[in-house]
Amino acid sequence: MHWTLLLVAALFEIVWAAGLKFTDGFTRLWPSVGVGAAMIASMGLLALAARGLPIGTAYAVWTGIGAAGTAVAGIFLFHESASPARLACLALIVAGVVGLKFLGK
Question: Over the range 45-69, which residues count as b (16 or more CB within 10 Å of their CB) and which as e?
Fold first, then answer.
């Protein structure tokens, strides 16, 4: 259950981080409200997940999924670079997250 909460928290992190682009520097009301709500949900779910997971593992997985997911969202939503080197670096982040899931205690 804690891993599920952590995954949902990380998905909300992707939403708020990618959503920042739509706020136009927090000058657009509804995108800003959505980003704020996603931030609150993300942090709240991280806190719940951390009740049953080591905080170092939980935080590293949360930020790793968030960082990699936001980079992928940038590729698809904002046409950011998908160079082989960039994709290889994202694969390293994903490998670290998977390692923490299966090896971290």
Answer: bbebbbeebeeebbebbbebbbbbb
